[in-house]
Amino acid sequence: MGGGKKRPTIKQMTRIQTRKDQPRKERKSGKLTTEKKSLGITLPDLNSKKVINELKTMKVLTPYTVASRFDLRLSVAKDLLKKLERKKTVEYVSGSKNLKIYKHSGS
To answer: For the domain that residue 85 is a member of, what is the CATH number?
Structure first.
């Protein structure tokens, strides 16, 4: 018929006691913490011939393809495409709220 909470074994009690003795940061710093990869936050040089030629070789210009090619965050890639559109380097073709598609302008 039940009867309440079971008592922990001696091994469980020693484990609980050693955990209480350790500082909190040491407990959390296990194998789960991995070093985060720092992605580029700065925009590539828009006047660079290398960047422009690299963009011209790409069939589709979406924020995702630009971000993966230049190892950028998506938000940075969106800003890059907007700046290139203002400079008339690329043209906005179509898209929705979530996806924008660009193409190279004639020049």
So the answer is: 1.10.10.10
